[in-house]
Specification:
Strand order of the largest sheet: 2-1-5-4-3
Largest sheet: 5 strands, antiparallel
Order of helices and strands: HEEHHEEE
Shape: globular
Number of strands: 5
Distance between the termini: 26 Å
CATH class: Alpha Beta
CATH superfamily: PAS domain
Number of helices: 3
Strand content: 25-35%
Helix content: 10-25%
Structural class: alpha+beta
CATH topology: Beta-Lactamase
CATH architecture: 2-Layer Sandwich
Number of domains: 1
Length: 145
């Protein structure tokens, strides 16, 4: 079992994002290319979607896109910020670890957080996307937060 493994069943919203990601794969590739992504195609899940730029040498992650709801949860000004340069409040706990696990696994990952301290439970998936000869983008979605 790998860290951040996908559960057998995802809620409808996250399953739709995973299905969209799977549909973007070309000719037997294990993951899609990020330039095939069209956020408008995620219309039913668009309020819970995020994109993270992935860099290597050194490994770092940066918020590329956050839906309005997620941007508000992140403090409003997270777009363009590296994850290690900003606080990661609810629902972004363990985000850097999950990003690293997604790169290493070269496949989808999932993080579930139980309700605690007045914060709602949530589930978050991250999906790797190929570009520039490496995994350079992570498509994510969060439900329940």
């Amino acid at each position: 079992m790998t860290p951040f493994a996908l559960p057998e069943k995802l809620d409808r919203e996250l399953a739709a994002v995973l299905s969209y990601w799977e549909g973007l794969r070309r000719a037997g590739n294990s993951m899609p290319f990020w330039d095939d992504l069209k956020l408008a195609a995620l219309n039913g899940s668009a309020d819970r979607v995020l994109l993270i730029d992935a860099f290597d040498q050194p490994e770092r992650f940066r918020f590329n896109f956050l839906s309005d709801a997620l941007a508000k949860a992140a403090g409003g000004d997270s777009k363009g910020k590296f994850l290690d340069e900003s606080p990661l409040p609810h629902p972004f706990e363990y985000m850097r670890a999950q990003c690293s696990a997604t790169i290493e696994a070269r496949g989808p990952t999932c993080h579930r957080q139980t309700a605690a301290g007045g914060n709602a439970a949530y589930t978050r998936i991250l999906l790797p996307m190929w570009g520039d000869g490496r995994i350079s983008m992570l498509l994510g979605a969060i439900s329940g937060a």
